[in-house]
Amino acid sequence: MDFETARRRMVDRLAERGRIDRESTAEALRTVPRHAFVPPEHHESAYRDRPLPIGGGQTISAPHMVAIVTDLLSLDPGDRVLEIGTGCGYHAAVTAEALGQLPENDDERSEQGGVYSVEYDPNLADSARETLSEHGYNVRVRTGDGYEGWAEHAPYDRAYLTCAPDSLPVHVLEQLRPGGCLVGPVGRGRQTLVRAWRREDGGIDRETHGGVRFVPMRRGD
Ligand code: SAH
């Protein structure tokens, strides 16, 4: 079976199992070539609903988890989105697709939305940058500590974590616009998927969305 057919079937199965709500999420998963983001030895398994190793002791989440987080973000075209944990860049590409593509021109882009991603591991950041641009995704990647967020491009409409901190990272919450939200796993060992909305008065409202398993968010040590 060719990759595109395998990908379509995977999305159909996820939709049948009620794992995808939004059409923009389904279409993004149908479009992004997940195999191209994982090491060659995993190309053949890229369209099973499984996490996969991506090097540096890290793993890419299973597609259903990418779908759940992308749905919870309830993205609008033109949103500015912060991702913490670029990994191989796959989820960032899905987010970029769900948002719609951005203009090439930097000035125009700064007026608009887009995906900004922070990755701790410099090797993963370099290879994600390469894969993303090879496939035409305009995602900006910064090597650094996600606990700090990325103040330069704040405020963000949306933010999400692909690694689990013990508690929600304060700087990322502060970099949300009022009315924006952060989606991510929280906890050590047992983790809960949380969506936190920043209120107009600066306070935070949280909802929980079940138990999940992500790699831990690393602390500079
Ligand atoms: N969304 C990614 C999945 C990445 S796995 C993908 O589609 O491939 C989680 C990533 O979070 C790893 O790459 C890990 O290096 C990164 N990470 C862990 N702690 C971090 C931190 N403090 N700041 C930024 N990234 C971090």
Contiguous uncertain segments of 5+ residues: none
CATH homologous superfamily label of the domain at 65-212: Vaccinia Virus protein VP39
Number of helices, counting only DSSP H or I runs of 4 residues or more? 7
For the biggest sheet, the summary is: 7 strands, mixed
- Termini Cα gap: 45 Å
Binned, the helix content reads 25-40%
Mean pLDDT: 94
Report Rg.
16 Å
Using DSSP, what is the number of strands? 9
The share of residues in extended strands comes to 25-35%
Taken in chain order, the helices and strands follow as HHEEHEHHEHEEHEEE
- CATH names the topology of the domain at 65-212 as Rossmann fold
Query: Briefly, what CATH class of the domain at 65-212?
Result: Alpha Beta
**Which ligands accompany this protein?**
S-adenosyl-L-homocysteine
What form results from the Cα inertia axes?
globular
Q: CATH architecture of the domain at 65-212, please?
A: 3-Layer(aba) Sandwich
Family: Belongs to the methyltransferase superfamily. L-isoaspartyl/D-aspartyl protein methyltransferase family.
Active site: 61
EC number: 2.1.1.77
GO molecular function, one term: protein-L-isoaspartate (D-aspartate) O-methyltransferase activity
Written description of the protein model:
The chain has 221 residues and is an alpha/beta fold. The protein has a domain at 65-212: 3-Layer(aba) Sandwich (Rossmann fold), CATH 3.40.50. The protein has seven helices and nine strands; from the N terminus they run H-H-E-E-H-E-H-H-E-H-E-E-H-E-E-E. A seven-stranded mixed beta sheet has the order 5-4-3-6-7-8-9. A two-stranded antiparallel sheet has the order 1-2. Helix 2 packs across helix 4. The radius of gyration is 16 Å and the shape is globular. It binds S-adenosyl-L-homocysteine. S-adenosyl-L-homocysteine binds next to strand 2, helix 4 and strand 4.
